[in-house]
Amino acid sequence: MKGYVPIFLLLTITLLRAEMQKVKGVGYPFQDWQAWDSMGLGVGYVSISQSEGSMLLWFGARFKGLDSLVRLEGPDLSSLKRVAPQFDTRMVNDYGRDLDGVPHPILSRTTGHRLADGTEVVQASIGPRYTGGGSELCPVLFVRVKGGEWKYLGIPEGDPERFVSAVWEKGATVRCEGGGLVQLPGGQLRLYNHGMMDPERVREKVKGKRASSGQILIAESETLEGPWTFLRDDQKQVIDITKGSGLPWLFPHVQPLGEHGVMLTGADQWPPKAVYAAYSRDGVNFVLPVTEEGKPVPLRRMEDVNPDARFCKSLRGTLIEKTGMFSAVMNVSTPGDQGMSMLYSGGAQLNVNAWNALFESGE
């Protein structure tokens, strides 16, 4: 197919752009969006994955007084079975920070993933008592091998752990608002984390009580246990996939799109009115659709989901490769929702020609 290069071929290419490329004259690579249906769930941070023909919906929730991880499963997003949580933060026993009077850490910004061998991974942020925008959100991993029990892995070992330690040594807090996990065809793992920076530059860059760089860095490892190493360019600088985009990427999420590549989603302001997306074939170099005037093209606006919406939060999904359908959820809040972000399910068809056009314009 003209212009199409599978992601596994691009993994051998070492040319790394310095910043996100903006492309004019093309929009998002999806068409025929379905009507959005309310799921009756008030959920802030959510993700979708697939498992042997089933859809998995992951999110954090307060259950019996404990911050917990919930995973719902069903043949599609309209037929999910309500089940008890998978785990809660009582298993976190080595966070090592003052919890401000609460017995267990908070659990937030959760995303669930399923690896090729059936291993399930939850990427999340933990911290002391939640106090809004100033709360610490420390990135951690939870894992369950197929047929086993959930295990807390803690802060990813290697460069991410070195970053967190350097921040704590300066008396500051970490603020990780999201990220993603992608397994490459050879089995290697790529971890995306918001809010990090080069550990060697923490002493220089962190001036106040909060370290939140706004960057999204890539760490690579052969195993979930690490060590994880930040990906760097030819100048030995850590690669920030959002550099040059002009967007803050609130509540960011990097999600695989099968053999085509990956997609980064996030919002542009608080409270968000729309969700934007950038696209990549290799998971490193991203392109951002913009108008002729250079303004980013929204993937979906809040009124696309509900015309009465006051704000939205995130859009997450998974590509069903057999059909090319991108099955998605998006949460919005209307005046009647009392500030809660209510979840809606929908989806669209991935247009391969439109996907190719995103990258052909820059070649």
Fold and architecture overview:
The chain is built from five helices and 25 strands. By secondary structure, it is mainly beta. The chain has one domain: Tachylectin-2, Chain A (5 Propeller). The strands form seven sheets. Strands 2, 3, 23, 24 and 25 form a five-stranded antiparallel beta sheet that branches. Strand 19 and strand 20 form a beta hairpin.
Question: Superfamily at the CATH H level?
Answer: Glycosyl hydrolase domain, family 43
Strand content: 35-45%
- Strand segment count: 25
By helix and strand content, what is the structural category? mainly beta
Radius of gyration: 19 Å
Q: Can you tell me the number of structural domains?
A: 1
CATH class: Mainly Beta
Average pLDDT level: 92
* Largest sheet properties: 5 strands, antiparallel
Helical run tally: 5
* Outline type: globular
Examine the secondary-structure arrangement and name the CATH architecture.
5 Propeller
CATH topology, anyone? Tachylectin-2, Chain A
Indicate the low-confidence ranges by residue numbers: 1-15
